[in-house]
Amino acid sequence: xxxxxxxxxxxxxxxxxxxxxxxxxxxxxxxxxxxxxxxxxxxxxxxxxxxxxxxxxxxxxxxxxxxxxxxxxxxxxxxxxxxxxxxxxxxxxxxxxxxxxxxxxxxxxxxxxxxxxxxxxxxxxxxxxxxxxxxxxxxxxxxxxxxxxxxxxxxxxxxxxxxxxxxxxxxxxxxxxxxxxxxxxxxxxxxxxxxxxxxxxxxxxxxxxxxxxxxxxxxxxxxxxxxxxxxxxxxxxxxxxxxxxxxxxxxxxxxxxxxxxxxxxxxxxxxxxxxxxxxxxxxxxxxxxxxxxxxxxxxxxxxxxxxxxxxxxxxxxxxxxxxxxxxxxxxxxxxxxxxxxxxxxxxxxxxxxxxxxxxxxxxxxxxxxxxxxxxxxxxxxxxxxxxxxxxxxxxxxxxxxxxxxxxxxxxxxxxxxxxxxxxxxxxxxxxxxxxxxxxxxxxxxxxxxxxxxxxxxxxxxxxxxxxxxxxxxxxxxxxxxxxxxxxxxxxxxxxxx
Length: 497
Prior knowledge:
The structure is a single chain. By secondary structure, this protein is an alpha/beta fold. Helices cover 52% and strands 22% of the residues. It is built from 15 helices and 15 strands. It has helices spanning 14-26, 39-48, 65-75, 90-98, 113-150, 169-175, 184-191, 194-210, 255-314, 324-345, 348-352, 355-370, 387-408, 437-446, 451-461; strands at 3-10, 29-36, 53-56, 81-85, 103-106, 154-159, 164-167, 212-221, 227-238, 244-253, 373-378, 412-420, 423-430, 465-470, 476-483. A hairpin with a 5-residue loop joins strand 14 (465-470) and strand 15 (476-483). Helix 9 (255-314) runs antiparallel to helix 10 (324-345) and helix 13 (387-408) runs antiparallel to helix 15 (451-461). It starts with a strand and ends in a 14-residue tail after the last strand.
């Protein structure tokens, strides 16, 4: 080792200090040194600067080497301290070394000085690095202990190489107390549910063989005598030749989470069935109202209009009120409104002619009103699809076209219906203004926008999925996929329409 070193010299003779510095320089060191010869000067030098080595005379007018050594050790126990003196006998030199000095060099034989300095600086660096490593290890161990105490997980460490099993207190609380000398894994195996034991043991044997991170769920007899659901995650450590030597893992009691999942799934199923029934009742009510309007109100208005038209043609003057021709015109407007409401509630094409005809008719109607250029592409459909699926598909198109008419300012609309077993795929695209889907999602969560949410719910109730893609200035595409195998009975609703 050569290079620049900072040397603190405790020496009352300036000439001797120069000799020491020249000896170090002659052997390749670039020396930066400071000479002190009193305790206050030494204290100040230690406080103001960092030093690589301290070279100290033993006998000085105001204090001696042992006193200097005590001050240096109090300041930095690892700072190399070498006595360089010519006035000390062998016995005193030994006492100095016992007190903590690293070496002793006679002034009349400085040939050993460079070697001693080089060695002690290297040893001091190793001591400091070792201490830092020990402090880091202690901090890591303390952190591990705190984590082990803080976590609810039952943590275990099986070391095959050392033949030692380690586990935290949570393991005992979960599995139960161990008998003297009883390995934890023996009690764990005995507590596995009989229906899970073979599967779980095979899982862990595979983990030992293949290594890496593994995860498994199983039932385990708890210390309280009841089976609990366990989520067990482990990591297998292998040595340099790939042999698995250690398994570290954590067992988490997820019984309550599993119960909550079951309750949530049940609640979701009930909600789904309720939503399906609500939509089913709604569709039936629309069908009923549409029929009543068409069959009853529509027929009355038709009869009234025919009568008024006949009265107007007869030339009979009505003494008071509107002329029969105006009354016939109003009856015709009312009849047209009833027909529009009837078609909006439930187009007869959907029930009588099927999905394809209903979509074609609705697209044509909206295109005429909104002045769109429309494209309709449809694959050959089965004779009739499930009525619930047909209704959901029609309502998605109805909502998409309504949104396009109200907000998009589109000039072109494309509607596609593709049969791609096992799915029926619907796509509605407009070239309008588009929108920020993230903003719409936020409004849905706030309850201020129900259009997309309603489409998603309808599609989900028949086992499908919906995707809405849009960007400002890029138009909007609504894509829905429906399983062709869907049966309305699977949603818990019978179609009595």
